[in-house]
């Protein structure tokens, strides 16, 4: 039986691969070892201290971390912890939304006075405002993660507005090219490895000139990164574009 001391010397990505092959000992070890990481991710969503022993949100985060171990693929280009962080946050967000939509149980013995009976329109307005604030915060988190991913390709969020094709047809063509890039395993692996476009191979797969590919290189890479990540809000901007 492998001791925990031995597991500490094994690279994380290698341990994840073992988990995916059915290594339950390593799976349990990682679930135990990364509880502080999980609690931190959950805390960032809930904006408060998370007690692993008492808060349901932590259980959701722990389950999400386990799911991330099973579904992670290094082909996506991001590290396991970056992937796990996004999965945890997404699951906790879904849980919070589910809880807020679920009607709260009301005791038959409970009494209400005039002050407790809020105007339904006011309640709806407050809930809508809260949801907008939550969406804004999560969108901000997503953009912060996106900036980190762009940096690996020597791109910045600010310059995307400058390199974005000005005409709609050109933008759609660039997004379509990014989708082709993402959907081809060999081209996708090339981009992950080299952090640049495989111009020679790509020009044979899309109806776009080499000159146009080179001109829109940064924008295509930026869209490609969005497609490879678990971005809920950023992907909204690409719905129906280039398909």
UniProtKB/TrEMBL annotation:
<dbReference type="GO" id="GO:0006352">
    <property type="term" value="P:DNA-templated transcription initiation"/>
</dbReference>
<keyword id="KW-0346">Stress response</keyword>
<keyword id="KW-0804">Transcription</keyword>
<dbReference type="GO" id="GO:0005737">
    <property type="term" value="C:cytoplasm"/>
</dbReference>
<keyword id="KW-0963">Cytoplasm</keyword>
<comment type="similarity">
    <text>Belongs to the sigma-70 factor family. SigI subfamily.</text>
</comment>
<comment type="subunit">
    <text>Interacts with RsgI.</text>
</comment>
<comment type="function">
    <text>Sigma factors are initiation factors that promote the attachment of RNA polymerase to specific initiation sites and are then released.</text>
</comment>
<dbReference type="GO" id="GO:0003677">
    <property type="term" value="F:DNA binding"/>
</dbReference>
<feature type="short sequence motif" description="Polymerase core binding">
    <location>
        <begin position="56"/>
        <end position="69"/>
    </location>
</feature>
<keyword id="KW-0805">Transcription regulation</keyword>
<protein>
    <recommendedName>
        <fullName>RNA polymerase sigma factor SigI</fullName>
    </recommendedName>
</protein>
<feature type="DNA-binding region" description="H-T-H motif">
    <location>
        <begin position="199"/>
        <end position="218"/>
    </location>
</feature>
<keyword id="KW-0731">Sigma factor</keyword>
<dbReference type="InterPro" id="IPR014244">
    <property type="entry name" value="RNA_pol_sigma-I"/>
</dbReference>
<dbReference type="GO" id="GO:0016987">
    <property type="term" value="F:sigma factor activity"/>
</dbReference>
<keyword id="KW-0238">DNA-binding</keyword>
<dbReference type="InterPro" id="IPR013325">
    <property type="entry name" value="RNA_pol_sigma_r2"/>
</dbReference>
């Amino acid at each position: 039986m492998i001791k925990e001391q031995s597991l500490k010397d094994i690279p994380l990505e290698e341990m994840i691969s073992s988990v995916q092959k059915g290594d339950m000992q390593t799976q349990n070890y990682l679930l135990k070892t990364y509880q502080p990481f999980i609690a931190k991710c959950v805390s960032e969503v809930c904006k408060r201290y998370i007690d692993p022993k008492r808060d349901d949100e932590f259980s959701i985060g722990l389950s999400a971390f386990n799911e991330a171990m099973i579904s992670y693929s290094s082909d996506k280009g991001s590290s396991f912890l970056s992937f796990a962080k996004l999965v945890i946050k997404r699951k906790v967000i879904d849980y919070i939304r589910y809880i807020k939509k679920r009607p709260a149980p009301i005791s038959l013995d409970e009494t209400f006075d005039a002050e407790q009976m809020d105007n339904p329109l006011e309640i709806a307005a407050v809930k809508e405002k809260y949801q907008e604030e939550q969406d804004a915060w999560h969108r901000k988190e997503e953009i912060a993660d996106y900036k980190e991913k762009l940096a690996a390709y020597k791109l910045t969020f600010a310059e995307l507005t400058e390199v974005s094709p000005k005409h709609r047809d050109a933008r759609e063509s660039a997004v379509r090219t990014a989708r082709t890039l993402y959907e081809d395993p060999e081209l996708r692996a090339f981009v992950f490895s080299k952090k640049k476009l495989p111009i020679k191979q790509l020009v044979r797969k899309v109806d776009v000139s080499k000159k146009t590919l080179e001109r829109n290189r940064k924008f295509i890479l930026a869209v490609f990164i969005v497609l490879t990540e678990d971005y809920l809000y950023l992907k909204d901007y690409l719905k129906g574009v280039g398909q």
